[in-house]
Specification:
The chain contains six helices and twelve strands. 29% of the residues lie in helices and 25% in strands. Strands 3, 6, 7, 8, 9, 10, 11 and 12 form an eight-stranded mixed β-sheet that branches. Strands 1-2 form a two-stranded antiparallel sheet. It has a two-stranded antiparallel ribbon with strand order 4-5. The termini are far apart. The chain has 203 residues and is α/β, with parallel strands linked by helices.
Length: 203
């Protein structure tokens, strides 16, 4: 039986949470240095994200590589994650999202689609998003929005995950949100860590 967490006056069964961590970026504005390998206080950004996901109680993580594949894989080899490669990473994040969702094993109540280059995101921020997912009145996708600006990570339930994977075209999370807003729950928050990122990295 799952843990019971008391939040906002109610009891919520512990959800099974998966995560896709997108780490395929080339970092053109960083002189060609792979964005996941940029360090903050000596720690690669991708490692910071993996530590945050672990602290938030995520059950399974898939890391999607692209540019600088070998170096990124070496950086995460000590973490208990599944690593998959998207050879077409230069075509955009749509393919990386699909590769990552496909690689998740088993059933999940929700899946976090996260970016490796959000330097300030910590476990408490991810827990805040998971709590928003539990409390949402409706919606298959939860998107954090700060002062009108869309942020990351986003959360998908199994319906949204299946819809993305079953599409005949590359249906990115952004397109799902824009084409079917009825599926989306907007999580209004003042937490600016959700929008601290390379603006080219938005899913």
């Amino acid at each position: 039986m799952g843990c019971l967490l008391k939040q906002g006056g109610g009891l919520y069964a512990r959800l099974r949470v998966g995560a896709v961590l997108l780490a395929a970026g080339e970092g053109l504005r960083m002189g060609g240095v792979a964005k996941p390998l940029i360090t903050l206080q000596g720690v690669p950004l991708i490692n910071r994200q993996l530590i945050a996901l672990s602290g938030a109680g995520v059950d399974e993580v898939v890391v999607v590589t692209g540019y600088a594949r070998d170096a990124v894989e070496a950086a995460v080899q000590t973490f208990p994650v599944t690593v998959v490669h998207n050879p077409d990473y230069a075509q955009g994040q749509e393919g990386s999202v699909r590769v990552g969702l496909t690689a998740l094993i088993g059933n999940f109540d929700l899946v976090l689609v996260a970016l490796a280059d959000q330097p300030l995101i910590g476990a408490s921020d991810l827990t805040e998003l998971i709590s928003a997912f539990k409390k949402r009145p409706r919606g298959n996708v939860v998107v954090p929005v700060v002062n009108g600006q869309r942020g990351n990570p986003i959360l998908l339930d199994d319906v949204a995950r299946t819809q993305i994977l079953s599409s005949d075209t590359n249906l990115a999370c952004r397109n799902l949100i824009e084409r079917q807003p009825e599926l989306v729950h907007i999580f209004e928050t003042s937490n600016t860590r959700f929008i601290t990122e390379d603006r080219k990295s938005v899913v």
